[in-house]
Amino acid sequence: MIFAKVLTAAAAAAALFASAPSFGADAPSVKIGVVGENNEQWKPIIARLKEEGVTAELVKFNDYALPNRALEDGDIDLHACMTGEFLRTESQAHGYHLTAIGTTIITPLAVFSKKIKSLSEIPDGASFAVPGDPITTGRALRLLEANGVLKLKENAGWTPTVKDITENPHQVQFHFVDPGNAFAALEDVTASFINGEFAVDHGLSLSRDAIAVENTHGWGLDNPFVNVIASRTADKDKPLYQHIVDLYHTDEVVKVLHDTYGEAYIPAFTVGR
Q1: Residues 205 and 230 in one domain
Q2: Cα–Cα distance measured from residue 129 to residue 224, given in angstroms and rounded to the nearest whole number
Q3: Which domain holds residue 26?
Q4: Phi, psi at residue 21, to the nearest 5°?
Q5: Domains identified in the chain, total number
Q6: Are 193 and 136 in contact (CB under 8 A)?
Q7: Is the pTM of the predicted complex or chain greater than 0.90?
Q8: Which of 69, 98, 195, 218 has the fewest CB atoms below 10 angstroms from its CB?
């Protein structure tokens, strides 16, 4: 698990903002794509940019694939809503020219149920709803393997598929859904894997409500499931975009993440980089 380095907040902020570039002359604006309704950590960043003459707007999506298309097409300038691995695989699959320019958070994947209280209680023929993208599918299978529900091929890598299952003693069945529908699927399946943003949107707590949570202990910044800020590759060195990454990597953002989201949104950066 990654925690931001503890620094004196006032000193860190003073050092950062004393050297912050001035964008007021051009009065620029920036559109940042996010997924879900809970993005409180962006409020101090948007407020600071406003003081510097920059208008920042959050553009909300309800699906992880849509922000990539919007960024590639120039409808938004940045997005901060997905893992580096999802960004990479989507860019390869669709020929996008997108690049991660900074890390943000880890959102542990969790499984929820209205029918059982533990994965040790799953009946034969149990059904799981899983967000259908290959990254979340792989993480879900790894979580099930870690909890003894099934076994995977040794060489399955970060993102195994159902074809990599070697042992499935309970004959578990999988129903692949859009991420935004995973919560509603709770009514129809034994259990459902719900991505962090959507779990928070529906008021779910990992510690209170989840029957199992992905173990993120020891994840480093090179882990493909760390969330990132992304830009078009041609724009990755723009001073404004790099400045936004710096503003995200502050104690102020760490405090909002901790106070508002607790274990659901874990800082995946070192303050001040």
Answers
A1: no
A2: 23
A3: 9-107+220-267
A4: -65, 155
A5: 2
A6: yes
A7: no
A8: 218
For residues 86 and 134, state if they share a domain: no
* Contact present, 2 and 220 (Cβ < 8 Å): yes
Cβ-based neighbours of 121, under 8 Å, separated by 6 or more: none
Tokens standing for residue 63? 């699906």
CB atoms within 10 A of CB 193: 29
Q: Exposed, middle or buried: residue 233 (CB in 10 Å: 0-12, 13-18, 19+)? A: middle
pLDDT tops 70 at residue 70: yes
Give the Cα separation of 256 and 88 in Å (integer): 28
d(CA 136, CA 86): 9
Q: Cα–Cα distance between 130 and 140 in angstroms, integer? A: 7
Q: How far apart are CA 193 and CA 112, in angstroms?
A: 6
* CATH code, domain carrying 41: 3.40.190.10
Q: Which of 47, 51, 55, 46 is nearest to 27 (CA)?
A: 55
Instruction: Give how far the C-alpha of residue 216 lies from the chain's centroid of Cα atoms, to the nearest Å.
Output: 13
Final residue belonging to a domain, choices 167, 194, 213: 213
pLDDT band at 26 (very low <50, low <70, confident <90, very high): low
